[in-house]
Please model this.
Amino acid sequence: MKTIGRVDKADFPELLLSEIDIKIDTGAYTSSIHTHHIREIVIDGEDFIEFQLMDPTHPEYHDKVFKTKRYKRKSVKNSFGKAEERFIVETTIVIFGEEYPIELSLSERSDMKYPVLIGRKLLNRRNQNLYSTRRLVEAGKEKGHEVVVIDHSKCIIELEKRKPKIFYNGIYLNDFDAVIPRIGASVTFYGTAVVRQFEMMKVFTAVESQAL
Model:
């Protein structure tokens, strides 16, 4: 089984980048990429963001100017914890042949060793091969626990007042001691319902459903 490490490589097909060095940073929420000559432009009455990637010294550098209207402004904390307003673009990332949507903060990273930083937003996807999930599994096993990664979107809740149940791929989940929820903002509603169901089954949850 392939797993994503702290430092790895990835492709960004829409940005014409392949085998780019990436660094995993669980301290950052948003992923970022080294960019320069960033500016907003208007084409036929529509707003676009225009930018170039990498430095001329980088092996994957090309002087192509990218334009996209799939962007937004967002306040992002830098590595020093200071909030900065940045442009965020939508694109795709390919890791081990699997393609995922990703939002990238356009950032000047010429003084950094790695041109791409991968934050928690991508890592929180329901993929047990990702570094953050794998580390949780490893830490649990080191303590002697049996650890199972479950995609909550595939859980079916059976609402019975006296005996609440959860089924996962047709299997009744009735023998768990604790749950560590890792739920993205886009799926919080159903994820919270699953966590609440575990609570009703008297299973300890590291984060209570009310806090999600």
